[in-house]
Specification:
Largest sheet: 8 strands, mixed
Number of strands: 12
Number of helices: 7
Length: 229
């Protein structure tokens, strides 16, 4: 459900507070019967509301959708995204190597950093982490939660907010399999020194590596101002 139809969003909002409502109770803007009936039919057809004995109520799907609304302005509230950030590493001949990825899609096309991925509905963090690792690199491993990072990214010139994300940072060890690339990213293992020198990198990658090496696993919340996106 998006902000595409104000009337339908308003109906959902009203039903949050009046779970069993009649037609006239929902038509708070006094629209014509035909016009308002059309929007009710759309909501019933899409499974957001149900009608029983002339009373309308939210379905489970409708309650989820309506719960995302700002009930004052009747718009869907924007929310921060939740994802994982993976720090896969291994030791080869006594040297620690970190797996990083060059992003091959916008935004941040061509930038290097640790791989990330969205947490899917119903997934645990380990499930998300290991799924993303396999999909993005072809590898398997064992993961351990380290800390949570809330980052807010702004355009340096205009001040416009570009991103708002919560990353669950997980360490991945005992890596196995053959490293592969995908259409979305090129992967390689690097030393700490190589990581520091590689360019371009995401705005906070050096911080993320430093926090990991220092075992600084406290919750972190930072604002970043960038000139390219």
């Amino acid at each position: 459900m998006d902000n595409s139809n104000d009337i339908q969003l308003k109906i959902l909002s009203v039903l949050l507070y009046k779970p069993q409502s009649r037609f006239k109770d929902l038509n708070i803007d006094s629209l014509t019967t035909d016009n308002f009936s059309y929007h009710l039919r759309i909501l019933v057809t899409t499974g957001l509301i149900q009608k029983e004995n002339s009373l309308y109520s939210l379905t489970a799907k409708g309650k989820i959708a309506a719960g995302k609304l700002d009930t004052t302005s009747y718009v869907v509230e924007k929310q921060a995204k939740i994802g994982v950030l993976l720090i896969p590493h291994k030791v080869v001949k006594g040297q620690e190597l970190f797996l990083i990825q060059q992003r091959l899609k916008e935004p941040y096309f061509g930038y290097w950093g640790f791989m990330t991925g969205k947490v899917r509905y119903g997934e645990t963090l380990p499930q998300t982490a290991l799924r993303e690792l396999q999909e993005e690199s072809g590898l398997t491993g064992e993961c351990r939660f380290c800390y949570e990072l809330h980052e807010m990214v702004y355009d340096q010139t205009s001040g416009q907010q570009l991103e708002d994300k919560f990353f669950q940072v997980l360490e991945v060890t005992n890596l196995e399999g053959n490293l592969t690339d995908t259409i979305e990213g090129h992967n390689k293992f690097v030393t700490v020194d190589e990581f520091r020198q590689i360019s371009p990198k995401y705005h906070n990658e050096d911080d993320i590596l430093s926090w990991f090496l220092d075992r600084d696993f406290k919750f972190k919340e930072h604002k970043y101002y960038i000139d390219k996106f």
